[in-house]
Amino acid sequence: MDAPQRILITAGPTHEPIDAVRYIGNRSSGRLGVSLADAAAARGWPTTLLLGPAHLQPAESSLLRTFRFQTAADLQRLLHEHWPEHDVLIMAAAVADYRPAPGAQRHSRDHRPKTPRQDQPITIELEPTPDLLADLSSITRPDQRVIGFALEPAERMLESARAKLSRKRLNAIVANPLETMDAETITATLILADGREIAAPTALSKRDFAEWLLDRVTAIISGR
Ligand code: CTP
Fold first, then answer.
1. Are the beta carbons of 34 and 11 closer than 8 angstroms?
2. Which residue owns the Cα nearest ligand 1 atom 23?
3. pTM above 0.90?
4. CA atoms in the 13 A half-sphere facing the CB of 63
5. Which of 1, 26, 97, 131 has a CA positioned 20 to 30 A from the CA of residue 11?
6. Measured between alpha carbons, how far is 24 from 99 in angstroms, rounded to an integer?
7. Ligand 1 centre from 97 Cα, in Å?
């Protein structure tokens, strides 16, 4: 029987507003993160799901709490609020790397009117979002474990994922080819901080992959 782990999972895309009605988003469905949350709660682990603007909902469970976010900044606030009372973070959210810069439009981020149509091309200036995982490393305790995701072009998947694992100071990273986003199945390799690479069985459903990954999380926590 696994020891219950207090697990924090992020899932889904971010939406970064351009104006009152438009946003920059991505195709993440949130399905894998929601499957992870369902599977963790079903194992008896107290689970917190931070879920972006996706259509999915996790199953009802007394062990599962869900908080919603829209933007990378919302998610950053939720992570700072909830991470201290958890043992494990699985960062499956597809966080935007850039967002419209507020200064360029002369309006605050939350009060942009709808941009009127015009015949000239327009330019949207983007600014980088903070790297949420790197930012969290300053408040992460040695007893906590952090698992990230890396969605990469297949030909340099492992190399890029290894670089992110060390740059973001993670305990492990799940390397996926780009095709995984929005797909029914997942092909993935888990890379551990000690250099081990563990390939998941190929083309698992996201539900089966969630169970496989939680088994690996249990092994990581117990030092195996
Ligand atoms: N991530 C994050 N903050 C961001 C962007 C990504 O914490 N602003 C997290 C993701 O949730 C994921 C991991 O970092 O767990 C890797 O995300 P990815 O988009 O692959 O990496 P980037 O750091 O954005 O690098 P690049 O865009 O150069 O591939």
1. yes
2. 131
3. yes
4. 16
5. 1
6. 7
7. 7
Ligand 1 neighbours, Cβ below 6 Å, are: 72, 91, 93, 95, 97, 129, 131-133, 148-151, 164
Q: Token digits for 54?
A: 């996706």
Burial class (CB in 10 A: 0-12, 13-18, 19+), 53: middle
Cα separations in angstroms, 80 against 73, 75, 204:
11, 9, 32
Q: What pLDDT is attached to residue 223?
A: 82
- Enumerate residue ranges in the chain where pLDDT < 70: 1-4, 103-111
**Pocket test residue of 133, 136, 180 for ligand 1, highest count of atoms within 8 A of CB:** 133
Structure tokens at 88: 């494990």
Supply 209's token pair. 């992959």
In this structure, the number of other CB atoms found within 10 A of the CB of residue 209 comes to 24
The pLDDT tens digits for 42-81 are 999 999 999 999 999 999 999 999 999 999 999 999 999 9
CA distance 49 to 68: 8
Place of tokens 């009605």: 21
> What's the residue count for the chain?
224
What pLDDT, on a 0 to 100 scale, did the predictor assign at position 81? 98
Instruction: Look at ligand 1, atom 9, and give the residue with the nearest C-alpha.
Output: 133
